[in-house]
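Structure in, sequence out. Go:
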């Protein structure tokens, strides 16, 4: 995916964002974090594209009862997730657009 196309999908995680308290994930070394300036949204940016029907595992975010997980560019809304052993397991939808598989 070319940089311009990637930024069209993921630009909000780059522009008008700031580094989050943990800039990268200690366990998922290919994942980096940014946040909105008000701190209400945390973005997990990974160098490895999501696999349809697979799972993304993150260690740094600690979900609360009001946590919602979404994927930039995915039109299907909220993603399901579970937590276990200080990790968040995000279920990747099987119907993610091909362009997001390289995001």
């Amino acid at each position: 995916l070319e940089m311009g196309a990637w930024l069209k999908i993921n630009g909000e995680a780059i522009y008008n964002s700031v580094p989050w308290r943990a800039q990268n994930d200690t366990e998922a070394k290919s994942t980096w974090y940014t946040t909105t300036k008000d701190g209400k949204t945390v973005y997990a940016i990974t160098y490895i594209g999501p696999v349809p029907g697979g799972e993304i595992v993150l260690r740094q975010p600690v979900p609360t009862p009001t946590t919602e997980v979404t994927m930039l560019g995915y039109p299907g809304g909220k993603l399901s997730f579970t937590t276990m052993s200080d990790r968040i397991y995000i279920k990747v939808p099987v119907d993610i657009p091909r362009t997001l598989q390289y995001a």
